[in-house]
Protein 1
Amino acid sequence: MYKPTYFFERMNRILFFIFLCTSFSLQAQIKHGKDDDQFRIFDVGLIAGFNASQVDGDNLAGFYKMGLNTGGVAHINFNEDWSLSFEILFTQKGARTRPDPDAINVYKLTMNYAEVPVAINYNDQNRFIFSAGLGYGRLFKVVELINGLDNNNDDAFYSDEVSYHFGGTILIGEEKHFGVNFRYQGSITAVGQSLNPTLPGAINRLLSFRGIYYF
């Protein structure tokens, strides 16, 4: 179902574009200290955190699947309040049964994506950045385990995902280089076949908790 070579060719083009943009400047809209009063166009940072996720349509419930969420972010600033941001992420989604050492049947699904979320951001110039937008994800690896055995059912999952997301970042410290980010994300397009006949397809839902360091 997936074509890793095609995907990485596209990602290389996106990375080259980000390099061109961020090479002009490493700082921007976020005020790093009370004496930082110069407006700059670009703002970049590094992201590291985790997802708590579930899949609607697998007859399970609960955000029990934990996974990585890491990558980079770049803001293009329109003025001191508004910016457009885009990220390049490695993010793990999926589902699992509720952790229980006495469980007889154990299910775990790990879906590895390379993802490019785009967002409109409002910066209140104090401590908070509010964000909402869309994202494109490319699935490049699936591991589905039933009682520890590989189910080997890759055809049940789709390579492309379009999603929506919203959340916010709290900036920490006097110079505001570090932020704590919370994000909710849900699929717009189906990511796989649904086991629930009332749903047309399976969709990802996840809560992301991340730290962001702005240069």
Protein 2
Amino acid sequence: MKINELPKITSIFPLSNFIIFPKTTVPLNIFEPRYIDMINDSMKTNKLIGMIQPRILRKSKSNMPELHEIGCLGKITSFKEADDGRYLIDLKGIIRFKIFREIKTDQKYRQCEIDYKNYLHDLSEEKEDLKFSDLELIFKDLKSLFEKRGFIINWKALEKQSLDETINALAMASPFSLEEKQVLLEAKNLDIRKNKIAEILATYTYDEFNNTTLQ
């Protein structure tokens, strides 16, 4: 997608404890009427929606959850309507954005004016220069955390993907908190994101160590 094709105003899908990164595709199950409307409207226009996390403990004057400032614009690449009226879509991350302001609208879903200037590099097709060997320890610790939390990951399939796809897929699927996932989303590049994952994992490892020794 080209810069001049990016919308200045987009519909917003606030989804707690969920993030999507550029160049990463995720499946979504849409069942709330207002978001059914949102997908319908999006399919009639540019097939784009903005994914963002709400601030769970904070509400705006309109009694709706406040939103984090940074989200990711996604494009609907696959669409299917289930027999019970749900929509099953695949959403591909395009570029991160910062909310400039929320727009008053007659729609049941929220819309925001957004800005991309700090994230234009998300549109680049260049791969960042990192190797799997750089990540062996992180992957080992992350795999251990996933297993302890009951998460099942096809690690061999992940290793066949590009490095940025792998790191972003693990960040999205991780059992990290809402705020920790937001930190990963806002990390400027893959190298910083890798280091942030390592920092977060270190806190989990420390906690689990304490929990097993202070009984």
